[in-house]
Amino acid sequence: MDLPGWLVHWGHPANMAVVLFAMGGYGTYLGFRIRFSGDVEEKAKAKDLHPKLLATMFVFFAVGATVGPHAITGAIGLALLTIQAVLPSLFEGNPGLRNVHGLLGSSIMALFLVHAAFGLQLGLSS
After folding, report:
1. Where is coiled-coil annotated (predicted)?
2. What is the rounded distance in angstroms from the CA atom of residue 122 to the CA atom of residue 58?
3. Which of 5, 55, 64, 8 is nearest to 30 (CA)?
4. Are the C-beta atoms of 47 and 34 separated by less than 8 Å?
5. What is the pTM for the complete model shown?
């Protein structure tokens, strides 16, 4: 396709950063709004958008996060996101899993920040 070298080199990290910070960041914010907001309407909107937004993030990460030398942290993150996606189906039988869901989700975001740092390090080294 004869794309410029800088675009080939930095296109993947730029796209993944947008997914992580925009979709993941806002999705995390919505999760906290579900958990802590006293506004019923705000909670309802967040409950609707939160799983859709983070499912879309998962798809983008599944396509892009498992390629390259930092694929190990990407694969671990995707495995944890899969567990995270299953947890809400178990809330009814065990309400304590809501806390696990919140802590795991926050930990996953931290892992993906480390993943991004490794990716940036790789990009700057070549």
Report:
1. none
2. 23
3. 55
4. yes
5. 0.85
